[in-house]
Fold this protein.
Amino acid sequence: MTVRDPDPALYNDDLAPVPRKKRTWGAFEIFNVWTNDIQSLFGYTLAATLFIAYGLNGWAVFAGIILAGIIVMVLCDLVGRPSVRYGIPYAVMARASMGVHGTQFPTLIRGITAMFWYGAQTYFASTAVALLITALFGPGPDGTFLGLSPVGWISYVIVAVFQLVLFSQGIGWIGVFLNWAGPAVYLVMIAMMIALWAMAGGDLFSELGTVFAGDGDYPGGQIAAFSAVVGTMVAYFAAVVVNYGDFSRFTRSERAMRRGNFWGLPVSLALFSFLTLVITAGTSVLYGEALTNPADIVARVDNIWLTVVAALTFFIATVGINLVANFIPPAYGLANLAPSLISARTGGLITAAVGFVVGALWVAYIDNVGIAAFVDTLGAVLAPLYGIIVADHYLLRRQRLDLNALYTTDPNGEYYFTRGWNLRALTAFCLASAFSVTAVWLPALQSWSGFVWIFGALLGGTLHYVIARSRRAVPTAS
């Protein structure tokens, strides 16, 4: 697909529709986008915690996790379809509903959120490299600077440079890395599960029986606990759902995208959760407590080769999620601000620079000032945008897009609206975002915090549809 006479203020090679012949991703690549998003240090801890913190029967936890995977799959199938059909990224797709300039506001918020988490995940990945260096060469010199030891700083720089080099090679190399990293992490997890199973023996099944029995000790009862499991897992994927078009645009067909989403979300999520459960149960038998942090597990096992393999695995897994969730979104988002000046590669360099500062200050300052609440608030602001994009495309426009109008600032263009801003969509966005942000901070709604993203998306889509339809119903003056 080609665009006729695109405006340089809205167009560059990275934002242009991907030609059919360059869409090389199939179901396997999409599958690995999700496996890498799941297989982080935080993802492991989250999955393990769900089985032991909510007092639910283990089968109920599995059902909640799989249901969450199905919900996310459906959400991604909906928002990813137009990007597959037209080959456009999320920032361009959002122009149809928000206006050719109005899209800059939400994409910038998404980019800022991702930059903060990019820096944080870079730091977390560096702890795995520090574990590897320490295991092979010792702890190194004493002393710290900004909370990091000399080994910590060396590890941090190694991770930052590695990620930057990988991204600079383009989306093709990122796809190759994800295709290799996802299966490799699963192989290591399976090996770790087998090793712990062999050491724990028959006591492992007894411990698993305890997990699957559940103690029912959760405020609000089992329905509330089940809802919390589903909501927590949906919220975990929310950031990637919004800009999923950045990945689906590279797939060969909608069928490949849907198959990749199916195997990468409910199926892969179930496998990852099962491995996590067995490993956690094994640690409970061997060490007398359920260890939900992989680093703690490795620290208890006095085996240098296990330490080396585990450290490399943690590093690969964390870099994988960082590329998927926190690098690509701001790279395209920044390019959308000024396409004639900023390419996706330049946007990636800016992301890496900001992220480097955030990660370097993470231990000493940022993690101690409530930054998590700040970025969670920004994430809540974005929730209505998903609903607006989907409602606009499927309900108002009936899946029709004028590709050329997405790249023009002609006042007569279909998506120009008012000086490039769709004020009605912006009104719906602001009202729904106010609800989402309030829900994040309101203690009375804390038990439903996992569903804030879904509620915000539904409210944003509903308001956008109602406001747009009501404006169309007003008769014009004769």
Summary: Residues 132 and 470 are 61 Å apart (CA to CA). Confidence is low (pLDDT under 50) at residues 473-478. DSSP finds 18 helices and no strands in the chain.
